[in-house]
Amino acid sequence: MAVLALLALGWRRSPNRVALLAGSGLVALALLSPLCSLAVALFSARVAQHMALVLIAAPLLAVGLRARAPSAPVSASVFAAMLWLWHLPAPYGWTFTSDLAWWASHLSLLVAAVWLWQALLHARPESALAAGIVTAAQMGVLGAFLTFAPRPLYLPHAFTTWPWGLSALEDQQLGGLLMWVPGGVLFAGLALAAVARALREARPAG
């Protein structure tokens, strides 16, 4: 209900209601579709759910919502903290035993991602470049760690992956790749876009 109330308030003040509506629809799809049920069985599906929220829904919401985000460095730091926190084995496992933890994980990641995207969209080019590179790097490190870990790290998926033809380790590796490649590529691309914008702004002065 709190999420609906915030979106309703955002709708009244939104400078881009199409983006807000699209972002809200993607949030609902990620959290209420069969993908959510699949995420109970597969770690890779949970990562796909998170990537849909932070890489697709969040930038749309950032465009659609009129809000003041923290600075790009602060937003990037908060996003990194939330991403690593909810993919550590203990907090991750907690989301399977507590509805409060489940909602907290998804909503804190989403809010942190919206802040990050808002900050990147309005930051100075050099600040957006730095935040984009840092975000791409930290997502890549976490994804690589999950991909190359020698053993499964997540007890909730110890016996849930076999019906899908995956071992728990293979499922974890797939989730790591989903985080490593799409997340790293997107934020690296954003960093390059910031460089291009900086060069365009510097051209008249030259």
Entry keywords:
mainly alpha
Give a description of the structure.
InterPro entries: Caa3_assmbl_CtaG-rel. It is found in: Cell membrane. Its main location: membrane. It holds the Pfam family Caa3_CtaG. This is Cytochrome c oxidase assembly protein. The protein is an all-alpha fold and about 210 residues long. It has one domain (about 1-205). The protein is about 80% helix and about 0% strand. It contains nine helices and no strands. Helix 2 packs antiparallel against helix 4 (about 45-65). The longest helix is centred in the C-terminal third of the chain and has 38 residues, at about 170-205. The mean pLDDT is about 85.
Number of DSSP helical runs:
9
* Molecular shape: globular
User: Which bin fits the share of residues in helices?
Assistant: over 70%
Number of beta strands: 0
Radius of gyration: 18 Å
Q: How much of the polypeptide forms β-strand, as a percent range? A: under 5%
Largest sheet: none
Q: Which class of secondary structure composition applies to the elements? A: mainly alpha
Distance between the termini: 53 Å
What count of domains describes the coordinates? 1
Q: SSE order, as H and E?
A: HHHHHHHHH
Q: Low-confidence parts, pLDDT < 50 over ≥5 residues?
A: none
